[in-house]
Amino acid sequence: MKESQVRQNKATRQWVIFAPERRRRPTDFMRPREGRTREPEHDPDCPFCPGNEGRLPDIIEEVRDARGRWLTRVVPNKFPALTPTGELARSREGIYLAMGGFGHHEVIVETPLHNLQPGQMSEEEAGGIVRTYLSRYRVLTEEEKTMMVIVFRNHGERAGTSLRHPHSQLIATGMVPHHVRWREEEAERYFDEWGRCVFCDILEFEERAGLRVVLANASFLVFVPYAAEVPFELWVMPRIHRADFGDMSEEEARDLASALRGALGILHRRLGDPDYNMVVNTSARYRAGEPRLHWYVQVRPRLLTAAGFEIGSGIGINPSLPEDDAAFLRGEGKQ
After folding, report:
1. Count of alpha carbons within 13 angstroms of residue 115, beta-carbon side
2. What is the mean pLDDT of residues 13-21?
3. What is the pLDDT confidence band of residue 306, given thresholds at 50, 70 and 90?
4. 55/75 Cα distance (integer angstroms)
5. 3-class DSSP state for residue 182?
């Protein structure tokens, strides 16, 4: 396809413009080898490295291996976006509405090693991350004032990270963001029209078509979405229909760790360790049992910068076709 095409994201009805005439070679997206500093296994100035525990405000939770060594640690964010002491009460300021900054902001230190990323971890190490995600998600969801728990990972400066030690974050909020409500409402609209989950339909179609699938296991399918907003975007979608991330079984958690390890490892190898954002898209707390909602993980590499048209219209321009991106990530695409 050489002419431009506009595709619709079936889950959100958002439009994306694909402009293959603007496409670069896949290897042009790769970070130059000298572009990222080679990190040591231990950094004496890093607060997350072993031996520097005195720099941490607290250790909330740890996951340990069979020999008693910690795999992951959960610590409070030293500069939290929201705090447990905040209030939920709304207040008016003239024509405006405000509320207190209630919430929790935690950091998940993913490994004792300063330079070990998830895509290069063992199954046990990657499994420790997912176990920690689930543990903290379930604990914070139980708090009465919590309405939404968002698990996310920022990798690289362009993705917003400030500390190089491998880590994820988790923020619990006392309100449901409009973006999440909009996604839920679109899924509800699809369910009311067709009587089916839109994400289950996407999953079935992508697996059957196979053009955009990157990898799969017993519980998850990893694919480049049909209307990917950025080059090499990946969705990691559970085969079992569930609205809530916290409802996973132990077997599914192991398979998720394997799928994330595989997907992030592929991005690392094929694109030269790109910056990216990863987020768990899950239901709001009080919609966890909805038959129309389906949680999934979204990975968005930071390879392009949104320009004026994208900001003004809300429509992304992607120069990279999802089918070509998936083939390249599978090792089939041209260099």
Report:
1. 9
2. 79
3. confident
4. 11
5. helix
